[in-house]
Amino acid sequence: MRRWNGWGDDNFTMALPDQGHAFLADRIGTSPALPDVSLSTVCDSVPPSRLPADSDAAPLIDCSPEARVRHARGQSLADWLAMRSGNIGVFPDGVARPRNSRDVQKLLRFAKRHSLQLIPYGGGTSVAGHINPVKADNPVLTVDMSDMNRLTDLNRESQIATFGAGTPGPLVESQLRAHGYTLGHYPQSFELSTIGGWVASRSSGQQSLRYGRIEQLFAGGSIETLQGTWDLPTFPASSAGPDLREFILGSEGRLGLITEVKVRISRLPEQESFHVFFFPDWEQARTACRKLVQNRTQLSMLRLSNGAETETQLALAGHPRLIGLLESFLSLRGAGSGKCMMTFGLTGSRHQCKAAVKEVRQICSEYKGVYTGTRLGKKWAEKRFTMPYLREALWKMGYAVDTLETATDWDNVDNLLELIEKNLRDGLKDKNESTHVFTHLSHFYGQGCSIYTTYVFRVADTYEETLSRWRSLKNTTSELIVQNGGTISHQHGVGKDHAPFLPVEKGELGMLAIRSLCATFDPDALLNPKTLVE
Amino acid sequence: MRRWNGWGDDNFTMALPDQGHAFLADRIGTSPALPDVSLSTVCDSVPPSRLPADSDAAPLIDCSPEARVRHARGQSLADWLAMRSGNIGVFPDGVARPRNSRDVQKLLRFAKRHSLQLIPYGGGTSVAGHINPVKADNPVLTVDMSDMNRLTDLNRESQIATFGAGTPGPLVESQLRAHGYTLGHYPQSFELSTIGGWVASRSSGQQSLRYGRIEQLFAGGSIETLQGTWDLPTFPASSAGPDLREFILGSEGRLGLITEVKVRISRLPEQESFHVFFFPDWEQARTACRKLVQNRTQLSMLRLSNGAETETQLALAGHPRLIGLLESFLSLRGAGSGKCMMTFGLTGSRHQCKAAVKEVRQICSEYKGVYTGTRLGKKWAEKRFTMPYLREALWKMGYAVDTLETATDWDNVDNLLELIEKNLRDGLKDKNESTHVFTHLSHFYGQGCSIYTTYVFRVADTYEETLSRWRSLKNTTSELIVQNGGTISHQHGVGKDHAPFLPVEKGELGMLAIRSLCATFDPDALLNPKTLVE
Q1: Chain B residues with CB-CB distance to A213 below 8 A
Q2: Which distant-in-sequence residues (6+ apart) come within 8 Å of B70 by Cβ?
Q3: Where does FAD bind (chains A, B) (predicted)?
Q4: Which of A328, B65, B131, B211 could make an SS bond with B46 (beta carbons 3.0 to 4.6 A apart)?
Q5: Using one digit for the tens of pLDDT, what is the confidence trace for B1-35?
């Protein structure tokens, strides 16, 4: 069953190897874990629902405390602390489970009639507070889209598949693979996040180098709004005025509820493999990656860990003897302390993969890269969606883990990366606490790349103090990002947590444009209020 | 000097070979050309300017009749007929030539103070009426951006170049090539159209398969609006809410005047070549092209002429002996009557081009394609921007030429193509006139492609009747396109000519979104009124 207060299925756990624990203890010390409250305790604290009962929408709505608890929070560290401590704050007053667009229309009419807040809920995997209800006088109805999870049309010639917006990653891929197709969209949240959520929050997957971000995959669909149904027809491309898909992408529930998503799919590839290079230092590694992407080498994924992340990953991997051998080999080849690990994916036809691997070897050898084959790449592929489970293991050892991500142009990558890492590393110094910080670049573009930084710190004696430490790290770093040429989010959206930082990025007139759209479609701000725009 | 009433430089003319003339005469007959009026006659007909003279903007503005004539019309067939007949209708009351953003701000204040209409003018190459003033009580000021034509910044690491919005294609490329870079954006209007115009109208270039449409190339920039300056910062990608670049792309002057454009550039490629295949029939040719693009074969351009276009191009090429030999060779290899010509471009590294050509040969041979080398491809590349000059030659022989274009999903390509061709072919039957119609597919996507249809008909005895025939062909076919799953424009924008057809494509709520944006930024509809949205 799905964990009510953490990530994923509770039958699945990941353990941190002893060496990994020792590594962290050495860096930031140890701490007793904070105690988790039980689901039943939290359910007992849920106040009565404020939803009007006499409605034709009532049969769609579950007002049980457990449903309301399970839909109150996402997966940010703040959400974790809230769920673990039981100090959750606001619960939705009910959870609706529409089966089709007509049900969604019914819910919108219901919301309008009673001035309800309406929060669309996909996989509940937001790490930016998208689905958290805010305290307000009007009741909150969360709309869980999970029953709309079918492949309803497959156009083989045009390679367009139509899905219910609540279809989660595994059901997207399994329904397509049965016909020989793939979407190829693999965010780390793949196991739970949904195709509608990907569109609403402008998601990006690990193989976006080949398949594109959700912006490139989203071909059209349907959105139910308070003004009626908004159908976006599919065109391969158009110059007929602004692209309305781009108004929906990243709209985060403020314009309406996405019910149907049409996506551009691909035939399953002839070949796929993942490989690893090591570089002696960051400068050479980063330059090699930039050259690869600016050269348009046909890779499907590329990820570059900095020295700290490389060291951490090797330490946390377990298998100290094997890792020791690898490190000796690398050291002999010039990649010793400070080495950086680059993982890349080859996906496509035989000719494409062959040409790409030649180019990778050529460019990487110019920057002293050492090729180590596919063994570590295979490991990466096996564990690509399991990292969130490690958070669970670390939590039980008294460690809090969070990540921050942005994207910026190449000429600003080093500057911004260093600012972020330094701010996180020094952020708890006044508490005499250390933070363990490491970074990778994951999504690559000719113009720049994403920066994805992980930070680990010991939990404090209380939930309140742990939350306060997190908030200080998160907010000062977010401010630093937008003040220094980074986007507030490359792949996780805005939600409520990033909304205060959006105006710096979008500017006064940009915010005017977004606000005017929201006001046009939702003049009373019933739809996911305080999300995206405060 | 630039032709005042047609395309391009008046030192440059193209002749139609005798065989070409005979071919057209055989298909649709001959007709005496209509007489052209002179520039001076038209200048004499220009009414006095209604612009207020006492303004700090006055030194920027040219109210001479010739400037006003030269900025009154674009390059649609209706514009040609207007300029050739002298029946131009509305002239701008003056033409401003700002040198920088401050000048543009000054013009906006001037417009606001006196309720002037403001029309941004790039290369004046619109074929959809973007820059034509409409009859109204308030005076019209056209803003010619051509003095803002410099490369002002080149960021080599991030591969971003900053240009003044009025920079035309050749100045974009020459300024970049001096540093070893290219933008790679080659619309047929390349010689005259500007980088700001490309953004405003969502342009697409012939090598978009490699370099992307202007949507992919436009990284950010500045727009001067009536609400202030709107700066769009550059990010490689972002999930922070709606992508505001996409609000500006295709805005056609309705939100403000684009003054500065930042674009994603590439290193000049190692290799580039253009090649030609012939296929026995349309079905096999079209399928091969679809397979190529769905296979993600790294081509830089791809164009497929249908049987009628292939025949017309070979007939109009001249060199009957050489063409005869080619046709005999092709016929022996199975590509006889009804054959279709496919041109493709290879651009990139040695490894990329090698892999791509292998895939092209493999896929094309599955569909009975006959490879003919690079000779015809080279010819295509030499003449890629000169086709508009042929229109001039045909006009002088009594023929009117126009094109219509759209894009649609693969499963609708044949259906829509046939509807368009049939409607154009039969459109003048009630006048006992024939139309010569042919088509190519030019821009290819996994999901579908563009359809570009050319039609040639004899001019009538009068300008009025010729215009009326054109209007009937254009409007009935445009209606057909939007009612049958095509976009009203894949690469030419909406302007005033396509505006009546936009609501079918965008839907009621899509139009609401666009209108609300226009009203937010320009509540009094001063900026390019009747364009994009009627």
Answers
A1: 237
A2: B2, B4, B95, B124
A3: 120-126, 252-258
A4: B65
A5: 899 999 998 888 888 888 889 999 999 999 999 99
Is B445's Cβ below 8 Å from some Cβ in A?
A: yes
- Judge whether B530 is closer than 8 Å to chain A, CB to CB: no
Host domain of residue B372? 271-382
Q: Are B77 and B90 in a shared domain?
A: yes
Asked which of B362, B382, B402 is the last residue of a domain, the reply is B382
Residue B87 CA to residue B397 CA, distance in Å, equals 21
A10/B contact by beta carbon, under 8 A: no
| A55 compared with B122, residue with greater pLDDT | B122
Do B306 and B240 belong to one domain?
no
The model's confidence at residue A17, banded by pLDDT at 50, 70 and 90, is confident
From residue A282, give the alpha-carbon distance in Å to each of A158, A363, A439, B421, B463: 43, 15, 11, 58, 69
Sheet holding A160-164, edge to edge: A151-155, A160-164, A257-264, A218-225, A228-232
- B244 and A487 in contact by Cβ < 8 A? no
Three-state helix/strand/coil letters over A47-108: CCCCCCCCCCCHHHEECCHHHHHHCCCCCCHHHHHHHHHCCCCCCCCEEECCCCHHHHHHHH
CA-nearest of B207, B225, B219 to B246 is B219
CA atoms within 13 A on the CB side of A466: 27
ipTM over 0.95: yes
Residue B504 belongs to some domain of the structure:
no
- Final residue belonging to a domain, choices B96, B126, B144: B144
What does the alpha-carbon distance between residue A205 and residue B294 come to, in Å, rounded to a whole number? Answer: 20
Within a 13 Å sphere around the CA of B507, how many CA atoms are in the beta-carbon half? 19
| Average pLDDT taken over every residue of chain A | 96
**Residue B234 with chain A: CB contacts under 8 Å:** 409, 447
Looking at CA atoms only, how far is residue A338 from chain B in angstroms? 24
